[in-house]
Structures are given as C-alpha cells and as structure tokens.
Design goal:
The protein contains 9 helices and 6 strands, in the order H-H-E-H-E-H-H-E-E-H-E-H-E-H-H. The chain has 223 residues and is α/β, with parallel strands linked by helices. The strands form 2 sheets. It has a 4-stranded parallel β-sheet.
Length: 223
C-alpha cells in the first residue's frame, strides 16, 4: 500500500507512517489486495483526506467500515460512487436532510461535495474484503484513525464532530470538548432509525449554526 495523501495531512502524519504498527498494517493491506477483492480501490483508500485538506476541516463524521459491495466504497464514510444505489443508512441520512433543511432527496450518493467543503468523512477502518464486513478491523487502521481524531482535536478548534451510533460515540474520549462541538445521535441504519434514534436529530442545521457562531462558513449540504 503506497500512501498517497494530501500534503496538508502528510506534514502532520510523517512520524505516524514510520511507526511499526503502520508498517504491519501496510503489509497486511498489500497482501489482502493481492489475494482478495478488497474495497475501496487502492487509489481511493485515502480519499477522505485527499478531498478534505487538513486546514479546511471543520466537520468530522465518523463511520466504522467501508461498504463491502462491488463499486460502492469510494474512501469516504457513508458515500457511494456515482450511479450506485443508496445503501439504507445513506437513504436515512438524505431523509433527515430533507426534514431538517428542506433539501430535496438527491439522485446521487457521492458526498464529495461535502468533503471539498471541509467535511472529513472518516471511516475508522479504511479498507475491507469484499462481502466481509469488519474483515480489516483490528489490524491497525483504528490506531491510525484515532490518531487523526486526536490530531484534529489538538491542532484545531471549533470543529463539529458528528458521532452517529454507539461505535462513533466511543470516540468522544479522543476529543477536547472545551475546544470543539460534539453532536451525538443514533446511527442512520434502519435498525436504529426505526427505533426512533436517528430521525429529527437536526444535526445538519445544528452544525451550520455552530459553524456560523464560530465565524466559519456553513456547509451547503446539497449533494
């Protein structure tokens, strides 16, 4: 795995890339991609960072694992490639956007426009074997992405962290709540949403309110 990551991140991560765990992780990912069908494509593994520069990052959404179906994952959590049917969680995200901000349900699930505005769409694990959810967990990715969350917490201020579901909420311990804003709610998956833990959370309007209060540009959440 060759790490091709935006220079704005690379300058902060040079030492992390030299650590023994990252070498083991790199060897594991290379071998997996050689022996198995894995997602996302190699060139897209660090897409979340390449589309959202460090200095532009003002919102962080945390996912768990890339989509493991063909042509779905594109290196950003909850996002899918152009023309791909929306997974259930993404459908519920768009339904909440419609309710919260009146944004028309889109015909495209690629969230690149969010990333380019400073929304870091960060999966805790950046790769997965086809049709095997969680297959690349506990191999080092979580150490790396936890470091990313801590880096943002330490080096920036007034970032809005959107923590959806139990897994993401555990990351609260990595974030300085005196410097940043933390929004928590249920996961947008049907299981959680149908139990009443997702809809009407108004995270998108709340995020824009918090950004504006900090003198930052709100996000145009239209896809």
């Amino acid at each position: 795995m060759q790490v091709k990551i935006d220079k704005s991140w690379e300058v902060h991560l040079q030492e992390e890339f030299k650590k023994p765990y990252f070498k083991l992780l790199t060897d594991f990912v290379k071998e997996e991609y050689k022996l198995h069908q894995c997602f996302p494509k190699g060139k897209d593994i660090f897409n979340a960072f390449n589309l959202c520069a460090f200095e532009n990052t003002r919102v962080v959404i945390i996912g768990q694992d890339p989509y493991h179906g063909f042509n779905q994952a594109n290196g950003m959590c909850f996002s899918v490639n152009n023309g791909v049917a929306f997974p259930p969680s993404l459908k519920n995200i768009f339904k909440e956007l419609e309710t919260d901000l009146g944004i028309t349900y889109p015909n495209n699930g690629n969230l690149e426009s969010w990333a380019r505005q400073g929304v870091l769409l960060l999966n805790a694990t950046l790769t997965v074997r086809a049709h095997q959810a969680g297959s690349h967990q506990n191999k080092g990715w979580e150490t790396f992405t936890d470091h990313i969350i801590q880096l943002i917490s330490q080096e920036k201020k007034d970032v809005v962290f959107m923590l959806w579901g139990g897994f993401a909420k555990k990351k609260v311990k990595l974030i300085n709540s005196k410097k940043h804003h933390i929004l928590t709610t249920g996961h947008p998956s049907p299981l959680s949403a149908n139990r009443g833990y997702w809809f009407n959370n108004k995270h998108f309007s709340k995020t824009n309110f918090l950004l504006e209060q900090a003198g930052l540009q709100p996000v145009d959440w239209k896809v």
